[in-house]
Amino acid sequence: MVYEPWAAALYPFMDIPALVTAIVLANIYTNKQKRDKYLKNEKYLNELSGSASGYSGESGGPESSKVQIWPIVKESLQGSALTALLLGLALGLLTQPASVYESFYDPLFRGFLSVLMLIMGMEAAARLAELRKVAQWYAVYAFVAPLAHGLIAFGLGMIAHYLTNFTLGGVVILAVIAASSSDISGPPTLRAGIPSANPSAYIGASTAVGTPVAIALGIPFFMGLAQALGG
Predict the structure, then answer these.
(1) How far apart are CA 175 and CA 149, in angstroms?
(2) What is the dihedral of CA 16, 106, 212, 146, to 10 degrees?
(3) For residue 79, what is the DSSP state?
(4) For residue 67, what are the contacts with CB-CB under 8 A and spacing of at least 6?
(5) Per-residue pLDDT tens for 111-126?
(6) Residue 8 in contact with residue 171, Cβ under 8 Å?
(7) At what angle are helices 219-229 and 136-164 packed, to 10 degrees?
(8) Which of 69, 87, 4, 5 is nearest to 32 (CA)?
(9) C-beta separation of 181 from 147 below 8 A
(10) Residue 183 to residue 181: CA distance in whole angstroms
(11) 207: Cβ–Cβ under 8 A, 6 or more apart, which residues?
(12) Cβ of 81: how many Cβ atoms within 10 Å?
């Protein structure tokens, strides 16, 4: 299928916002947990002091019940993992990395990628048992999400196809990228950005479930759908 050469370059522009969103949401949740735990302890101490002195005090004020979103977003964006991703994207856009690519990345990329995916696959297989115990819904989501996210991107790609003559091959690439898990950049970014996250959930679900679904079902499905719509 014919496709635009730049279509695959959409990946970092989809991957980085997804990772930023994940880290920000996780940090909001953990800060909310810390706040709730603090308010619960404060309420308990006030009840103890109130019963000892004969009255019950009110804990906190309206500001103590709020989680400030912007400081969390700012802190998340300043993390080392996201900084490295954004810096790498900026270097690729603003410099001329052709010589580095030709001498280093191009001859070594496939070999390094094979080793990395082998290691990721072994880790994912080792975490499958724990995934079944602690994160069953992650596995269900990892099975459904590739097709659901891919269909959303496919629909947006078809709109671009009719409005701007975006090729059907480009639509398929867009859908496949949206259906894919962030197996390479995701785990190290989450380890650095969300240390408390359970690797069995995001590695076991994405690499062991989501990636096979995207490859075995997603790619043939989106190619067949594009060919059917294209006549």
Answers:
(1) 8
(2) 30
(3) S
(4) 28, 31, 32, 35
(5) 888 888 788 778 777 7
(6) no
(7) 30
(8) 69
(9) no
(10) 6
(11) 120, 121, 123, 124, 181, 183
(12) 18
Average pLDDT over every residue of 28-57: 71
Identify which has the larger pLDDT, 186 or 218: 218
Sequence-separated contacts (24+) of 132-137 with Cβ below 8 Å:
134/198, 134/200, 134/201, 135/198, 135/200, 135/201, 135/204, 135/205
- Least confident piece of the model among 46-50, 52-56, 138-142: 52-56
| H helix intervals, 54-135 | 69-77, 80-94, 98-100, 106-134
Distance CA 225, CA 211 (A): 20
Q: Kindly report the number of other CB atoms within 10 A of residue 176's CB atom.
A: 23
What is the pLDDT at residue 171?
Answer: 95
Length reported for the chain: 231
CA 147 to chain centre: 16
CA distance 130 to 185: 22
